[in-house]
Protein 1
Amino acid sequence: MTTDVSAPRQDGLRARLLALDCRAFEAVASRHWPGADRFLPRLSRSANHGVLWFAAAGAIAATGSPRARRAAVRGVASLALASATINTLGKRSVRRARPVLDSVPLIRQLKRQPITTSFPSGHSASAAAFATGVALESRGWGAGVAPVAGAVALSRVYTGVHFPSDVLAGAALGAGAAFAVRGLAPTRTQLPSPGRPRADAPALPGGDGLVLVAEAGGRADERTKALREALPLAEVITCDREAMPAELEKAAARARALGVCGGDGRVNAAAGVALRHGLPLAVLPGGGLNHFAYDIGVEEPRDLCRAVEEGGAVAVDVGRFTSPDDGDGLAAARERTEGIFLNTFSIGVHPELVRGRERWAHRLGDRPAAVLAALRVPRSAREPMTAEFRGRERPLWLLFAGNGTYHRYGLGPGRRLDMADGLLDLRIVHGGHRPRARLLAAALAGPAVRSPAQAALRLRGLRVDGVSPGTVVAYDGEVAEVRGALVLDKLPEALTVYRPLPTTG
């Protein structure tokens, strides 16, 4: 006959751990920190239902930095996952009673005591999830949030509503939730950098030789101020939107590198000037939409300043659209349309959305105007356009071409990881009934999913015939009218753009 001695040993270990947990609780409960008796209970209450963290996320996002906005979104997503896990699984798995409050001074005790089980601490999980999520995207903001998260976790023991082990377990679950969110939506630092192929560009110490043209007002003023401080030898010209094309041409005549501060539309105009003059382009994001700058790796003035001073640059493809001359004579040549796009080109419903956004943006702002335009365009679209490509006439609601392949990672937005792959990323939403449902399905499915509503393919070029006169196309946020035939192709590695390159060694 054998005797199982493992069970008594396990019970003894569990009893010792519980006793240690209780002694730690008593030590915190009996200790007095100056000012903490009033501050920590208030801080603990402010974190109820995540209110403290939602306010922190709003404050972080309000700074306007793309990295800060991503950090805020990641923090909230991590908090949501942690909270859902704790409330559905954690609290129901271990039925542990709350600590006895005999040793906790009345001034520290919460006015409303929690009625759920003690293990694990939901407040600690939310605090750790938010702080970890923010830190995974931005170390600076994470360092600012971490002390507050730590204080919230401490407050749960100090006010007597949790044992220390409840707090530690909750914090571990919260941090795990943040890493789980990162697995679904990788941070920018995890994704491959579009820093190839490298190109020769002059290093400009202090910005000597850089002439940057900026659209006056808004975020551009803040960005150009930071650039002037970092690159005192750079020449910065501010003007209104209508004057920018002329100012860019003047700047190119005397610059070693042409710079632009504005949204994607202004960057498009500057890229055309840089191509004609054979100059490298320096892009400082300063508009409502800055997709090209962000994809190339320039989010803040310090990113561009470092690249300009070190001469870090890459060669990128440039998309091109033209209406070819098919022998109709001089009159047809005068009506030809041609242009370039660094991000996207579209024909169909999307140009109407862009035009609607431009119509209301000055009254509502960019984002509200874009939402209103998206709601109104499908209602106004009664019949799909018809176009002929690959020898067949097809009805379609949308033809979209991306300058380079757009990738989607988990729940994250699309991003280009290679700016010189030589490909057009094409998406076609077929014509048919219920355009709103078709466009919504295409948007939710992403470019990699083929369905009866859409097709996705990648080509080096495409010709579209039978485009009706007056048809509107959109490119990098701008609009134009085309007619007849339309050719889309690429200018491989045609544009040199400054961007910070990874350090080696």
Note: The first helix runs from residue 6 to 30.
Protein 2
Amino acid sequence: MSAPESLAEVRARIDAVDAELIRFLAQRQSLVRSAAAFKTDEHAVRAPDRVAQVVALARERATAAGLAPAVAESVWRAMIDAFIELELTEQAALRQR
């Protein structure tokens, strides 16, 4: 990929990357909703050991890809927190059925 030649081009490329991220997050959301059906309580949803595993893997992959591991960890923790809240909502809805 060639270097951007203007701020407008940088922004356009960022917008394109963001669009892809949204598509991937939508896929992740679908899987999180599916996972809610397999979990029995809030502890299973919060799954601190799994969170630690996912964050560690994100840091490793970030390093390999040239992304600052601290940035990856921050983004992943925010994403995980948001999806945990979604999953708790999904799980509550499933219990009401």
Note: The mean pLDDT is 94.
Protein 3
Amino acid sequence: MITSCSGSSANANLQDLTWYNKATISQISEDPDHPKEFLRISIGISPQVFYLSKKNASYTSLLEKLNQSLQKGKKFNIGIENNTNIIKQITDPK
């Protein structure tokens, strides 16, 4: 799987995000250190680990998209907050 990463965005509100374009999820699990706060999300064949906050207002919709990717291989553009490794946004690739 080829995943591209982009640090820029046209939207000023998204400048603090690094984007993984056309990425697929390889694993979703509870974070062993903070199971009530985060899920661990692995992206790609040689997985990079990121986190989904259970306190995020969009948690349910983000998790639904992550599960679609994991179970059906659907590709998404995934926005990771810089310096935290927390998934903040998921969009359909254009």
Note: DSSP finds one helix and seven strands in the chain.
